[in-house]
Amino acid sequence: MDKKQIGKLFIIGYQGEEPSEEFLSFVKEWGIGGVIVFARNLSDPLKLPENLKKIREAAGNNIFTAIDQEGGLVLRILRYGSLFPSAMALAAANDLDLAEKTYRAIGEEMLSLGLNWNLAPVLDINHPSNPGIGARSFSDTPQKVAEFGIAAIKGLQSTGVMACAKHFPGKGEARKDSHLTLPTIPYPAERLHSFELYPFKKAIENNVAAIMTSHVFFPAFEKTPNLPITLSKSVLTDLLRKELKFKGLVITDDLEMGAITESYGIAQAALKSFMAGADQLLICHSLDQQKIAAETILKEVENNKEAAARLQESIERIETAKAKLPDISKINYSLKDLSKKHKNLIKEVSEKSIKFLSVAPGTLPVEDSPDTHFILPLISSLVQVEEEHKDKSLANIIKEYFPKSSSEVYEPKADCESILKNVNISDKSRIVFMTYNGHLFKDQLKAAENLATKCKNIIVIALRNPYDIFECSFAKTKGATFGFRTPAIKALLDVLKGIKEPSTDNWPVKTESTPTLV
Fold it and tell me: What's the confidence (pLDDT) of residue 456?
């Protein structure tokens, strides 16, 4: 058996900006099918095309070049590229045409760097208690997720970039982060078909190129206790292929995630997923594990006729998909030029996405004075899908808009006392308290409520997931941005400054009350 046939099954990550000689040697030996790029590989995105060329030459054939360029919380191209809004921000803007244009812009910027496969959109239907999805999801209803998901797929695939609907069959209701441990979603099949599966069915009808599996246990679909559906033949083959008639590529989520590794070796999981029906096996970090997984599947294919037949099925689908990939050598536009071209689009979406649940008389616009205090989160990674970052630029942006005001920055996971330690206010103060997943880290909300007892003029803004403000009955003016990137922050500050009117309609998720101008 030719190693290079086995290698086509793998999408692998590498460390650092440039791929190492050891990595390139592995790619060459096995004819690896594709790579996935993270922010760790993009300290200078303009160097990526040359690095991908090296990998492509080593592989000896056209390869998939993948990235998680979802927008908002999960955005890998941070330098020179556009700071695209989150999925939920796009749904808040409530314009399917704008959503399609945004994902077309994402596709164009990817192609300028030699990237041809976006592991997006997220078609999970979010639940407020989900620790890892939140504003990565378009909405909490199947219909809205499907509508905007289809717009995203059309936008991406209109450029030639492959879209990938994830995380099948839908993990919005998970209460644990599968990067760390295995969640279970216990609903009956009837509920799953009408709710979780609905956006994926619509994506399949609209010719999505690929579907990513979730590392979640669904007892309604899989009888083996605690078997992640990534490893389940009853889900990947019987449900997805036979029942839902999906003919595109099935790719696993990263096989190095805790939901897999707490019970399986990575190579063992790769083999089980391949035999269950996965075409592409995603191993994002460890070269040693990538090598062991390839050797494990080679051995199985050489000694098992069923595995050999499975290999041919996947190879046919892989080659069909690769034949449709755009010719990167013909791309003649630059990332910097595209970022300038897309600036107005990002601004329009960001402005339309800012929502207020309520606005009390006299609270807007916010006066620029020494009595105005901003309490701000230190923007940081809260779940593993986001790469580590810490950013103090939020305070700097606010200083541009409100130069006379003061700001205090807190750690999102800090306790209430630590958050308030350096905050000095009087009954004349005006407070803008910005939360960062406060519905999950409750001390943020305790701190805001504590301040509200000392100062009646308090505005609460949820910078990440919107659910924070639904628990803030003490604040009469409260809004949400569905993301923390600079365009969203500036759109919010335009409202606080009085440059733009606050919008209370077209919320992308159910609210605890009807949004109002009080």
Answer: 87
Candidates 24, 67, 82, 35; CA nearest to 387 is 67
Among 179, 193, 371, 415, the active-site one is: 179
CA dist., res. 45 & res. 346, Å (int):
20
Q: Which of residues 329 and 371 earns the better pLDDT score? A: 371
CA pair distance 111, 67, nearest whole angstrom: 11
Per residue in 386-400, pLDDT tens?
A: 444 455 588 999 999
The pair of three-digit structure tokens given for residue 441, joined into one six-digit string: 């880290």
Side-by-side strand order, sheet with 372-377: 406-410, 372-377, 430-435, 458-462, 477-480, 355-359, 516-517
Across the chain, mean pLDDT equals 94
Q: What is the Cα–Cα distance from 308 to 404, expressed in whole angstroms?
A: 70
Judge whether 179 counts as a catalytic residue: yes
Say if CB 459 and CB 478 are below 8 A apart.
yes
3-state secondary structure of 376: strand
Predicted confidence (pLDDT) per residue in 10-19, tens digit: 999 999 999 9
> From the candidates 124, 140, 253, 279, which is the catalytic residue?
253
Residue 494: C-alpha distances to residues 208, 348, 459, 472, 491 (Å): 37, 12, 15, 23, 5
* Cβ pair 216, 178 in contact under 8 A: yes
Mean pLDDT of the region 139-144:
98
- Residue entry with tokens 């990167």: 328
Q: Distance (Å, rounded) from C-alpha 40 to C-alpha 419?
A: 31
The DSSP annotation for 401-468 comes to H-TT-EEEEE-TT--HHHHHTT----TT-EEEEEESSTTTSTHHHHHHHHHHTT-S-EEEEESS-GGG
Strand locations in 115-170, DSSP E?
117-118, 164-168
Active site residue 124: no
Token output for 477 = 């003016």
- What CA–CA distance (Å, rounded) separates 421 from 500? 33
